[in-house]
Amino acid sequence: MSTNCTVLELVFGVVALDDKGNIIDYVLFPKNPVDLAEKLYTMETGEVVDDLIKLVDRLKSKGFKTFILERESSSRIIRERLNVETTIESPSTLGRVIRIDLSSKALELGFAKSRSEYLEVVQKALDLLARKIIRERSGKGDVYIIQAIHALEELDKTINLFYGRLREWYGLYFSELNDAVETPKEYFRIVAEIGWREDIKGENLSKIGIGKKTVSAVLEALKTSIGVEMDKRDLEEIRAMASTALTLVSLRERLEKYVEERVKEISPNLYALVGSSLAAKLIAQAGGLEALSKMPSSTIQVLGAEKALFRALRTKSRPPKHGLIFQHPLVRQSPKKLRGKISRVLAAKLSIAARIDAFTGKDVSGKLKEDLNRRIEEILKQT
User: Fold this and answer.
1) Which of 77, 122, 283, 332 is surrounded by the fewest CB atoms within 10 Å?
2) What is the mean predicted confidence (pLDDT) over 306-317?
3) Cα 275 from chain centroid?
């Protein structure tokens, strides 16, 4: 008799098969959808169900010595707890065969009396499992950060569209204003709250919060303006559009503050290393904080540059040295020949920070920043 067997963790229970695919032992999960969902959730989170330990222990007493499992976590825990030899085959050859028609095996082993009953129980359990996972992931807060950073990016695009359109439209009347202001917000405010050239005076500009430097530039531009005259009806529409754009800017500022607070709360170490905006973008690009924490530093380094990476692989050209992390001043402002090295160092620290944030929540940002800065200084000294 062979002392090897394959143990499968299936949706309805754990099943042991001999080398020929014959079932030699099994433990069925509860048929109640609520209890079944709990078993599936345990496996989904990388843990091991008690039923698996019970089954392997029983098989061990029957003389089986080597167990083929499909999950690394199951293999490790079984090996440590029961002192047996385990190997991983994911997915296993026998597992593929069994999963072709799971309902037939479920009926054969007595989990359900009919295929319709099996499907109904499993469907309800999977629905409960999905709800539980969504609730848990939503509770971590990173899903809100992902939505918020996407909203910020879309707001930026919308504000830029408004800005471009208003510069062309209002520019017919006062084209020089565009070069006199420093930010779109100042432009929107002047157009929405003043509008007419004859009302653009130092006192009125200061009253709506325009800085002294910009006030001087606007008044100087006003002296040489060559804009055409505009009808009141036209200007009213332009001012209404500028007022809407100003509302979008205020919403963006509020959302930006929200993202900063949430990132600092959920991932303090990432926040300390790269700031709220870049940390949020990395989390969003990875699909969540936990997903980011499981990525190797080499992947984090080029995260956001996937198109360039795939193009390099396809054309056998040089791969990108950085992705989103290029936005960090340490990378962006460093000498071009050192950006690759600095990107690798930063990505390595971000990998550590993400793991700490995802699994412990401890704030060790002081040490991480100190180590990062020391390593960057060493690299810069090499020039």
Assistant:
1) 332
2) 80
3) 15
